[in-house]
Write a structure and sequence with these properties.
A four-stranded mixed β-sheet has the order 4-3-5-6. It is about 50% helix and about 5% strand. The longest helix is centred in the N-terminal third of the chain and has 21 residues. Helix 5 crosses helix 9 and helix 7 runs parallel beside helix 9. By secondary structure, the protein is mainly alpha-helical.
Length: about 475
């Protein structure tokens, strides 16, 4: 008689998911011109968002070394600061800055997320390696390649696998994608990249507690930085020979699938390529959770018809997708900026009143305006099934919202529907000039004119950016 509790100790071959990720991370491409050009825009936008975050003490208090004095001369730099840190802590710093204002790019599918969150790990490792001088040199072209790979790993997992539906946070995909790419950048071979990845999955997944009422808080602004730093640590450990766990996902009873994913293996609808970078969504006009971007556009269009009749508003109907209804439909008190930038009602009220939505509009001074909550109390958020269908359609990936304002005298505004936000691939030609202006504005707000000019020259085209050494590129971002 065989005891079913006895387990075979024979070490299995690595899970195919781990092997496939490692093979892709170590591959050389090539990638499409569209992917590389979009990666250039993504780099610019992400670093601009990082600089903008330095205006907020809640962010800057977290930056620098873990403990005072734990600096690393010759280490990785943190843009907009004078910090030189080990690559693990630099990845946390850069990742937290990029993500802080919820203004960096995103990708929406069965799971949503922000692929440029991986830039914290990529840029920290690249600067660290290039400054050490023990390799052939790291160029900004290498950085763009790494960004395409990290975007793709994070996004392709997200296409068919919803982690939020089992209570897990999407930053786990940042940890996984950054681990794969960082391990490859550090010179890891196939086995070492697999080992690092297995440990990234064994870390499990962060709970989404801090993203949802009644516990919404600032951790959602530094969680991606935390994931990026952890990824670099795991990659460095793997390069030092630390072992991995080949069936970290599939092990019966103790693997990721059984413990955290209801026993279901991951599903993949397509191989890794450059689809995600090509289809990434930019937040161009305002820092707002992406499911609400088109609702904000609609509200801005209605501002002129509503701003002088705020007291006459009877109700406001917001139609959104199922995902938007589930994660950002929020009533009751909003205690902090992190609470407000994930509330569709707040994000519609501010532009109806003021004709704008900026990062400062989530701060307490603006939020104290009683007209905001008065409008929120009159809002009805409904799922529009057609928006949900178009949201999940891989050929559309629409993020539709519609807003209509009804007044007490029985009149109403037009119903304004916006299916695709300005940062969508379908509106890329319209959006790129505005994205460039956003980048220039963020530079000018933080850096001296000569620094701005140097950075703009470097980023002007792939011909100028890609051959540039990372250490030289980062020199321009250092602020004494």
């Amino acid at each position: 008689m065989t005891d079913s509790s006895v387990r075979d100790a024979q070490r299995p071959r690595p899970d195919a998911v781990l092997s496939d990720m490692a093979a892709y991370a170590l591959s050389g491409g090539p990638f499409s011109d569209e992917a590389r050009e979009t990666a250039r825009l993504c780099l610019m936008d992400s670093l601009g968002c990082a600089l903008a975050a330095l205006e907020f003490p809640a962010c800057t208090k977290l930056l620098g070394p873990v403990v005072p004095g734990a600096v690393m001369p010759g280490g990785a730099r943190v843009p907009g600061t004078a910090h030189e840190l080990d690559p693990v802590q630099a990845a946390f710093n850069i990742g937290a800055m990029v993500r802080w204002l919820d203004f960096n790019d995103t990708f929406l599918a069965a799971e949503w997320g922000h692929p440029s969150d991986n830039l914290g790990a990529i840029l920290a490792v690249a600067d660290y390696l290039d400054r050490r001088g023990d390799c052939d040199g790291v160029t900004m072209g290498d950085v763009l390649t790494a960004m395409i790979k990290a975007h793709e790993i994070q996004g392709v997992i997200a296409l068919e696998n919803s982690f939020n539906r089992v209570g897990l946070d999407h930053v786990l995909l940042v940890r996984v994608a950054s681990t794969a790419v960082a391990a490859a950048m550090l010179g890891g071979d196939r086995e070492q990249v697999v080992n690092a990845l297995s440990n990234a999955w064994i870390d499990g997944g962060a709970l989404r507690t801090y993203r949802h009422a009644p516990n919404t808080g600032s951790r959602k602004s530094w969680a991606a930085g935390d994931a990026a730093g952890r990824a670099v640590r795991l990659a460095l450990m793997a390069r030092q020979g630390e072992m991995g766990y080949p069936s970290a996902l599939s092990a019966k009873g103790w693997g990721y699938y059984d413990v955290l994913f209801n026993g279901h293996p991951f599903s993949f609808s397509q191989p890794y390529g450059s689809y995600v970078m090509e289809n990434v969504l930019f937040k161009i006009s305002f820092p707002a959770e992406f499911h609400a971007q088109t609702a904000v556009e609609a509200a801005l269009e209605l501002h002129g018809a509503v701003k002088d009749r705020l007291e006459d508003v009877e109700r406001i109907v917001i139609e959104t997708q199922e995902a938007g209804s589930r994660i950002i439909d929020k009533t009751g008190p909003l205690d902090n900026p992190a609470d407000r930038d994930h509330c569709i009602q707040y994000m519609v009220a501010v532009p109806l009143i003021h004709g704008r939505l900026t990062a400062q509009d989530y701060e307490d001074e603006v939020a104290r305006d009683p007209r905001i909550d008065a409008l929120r109390d009159r809002m009805e958020v409904r799922e529009n099934p057609g928006f949900t269908v178009d949201y999940m359609d891989p050929d559309k990936r629409a993020i539709g919202n519609a807003v209509k304002v009804h007044f007490k005298d029985g009149t109403a505004t037009a119903r304004v529907e916006v299916p695709y936000p300005i940062g969508h691939r379908r509106r890329r030609s319209e959006g790129v000039p505005l994205l460039q202006k956003k980048f220039e504005r963020h530079l000018a707000e933080r850096l001296a004119p000569d620094r701005c000019e140097s950075i703009l020259r470097a980023c002007a085209s792939r011909d100028t950016l890609e051959p540039m050494r990372v250490s030289a590129f980062m020199d321009a971002w250092v602020v004494a």
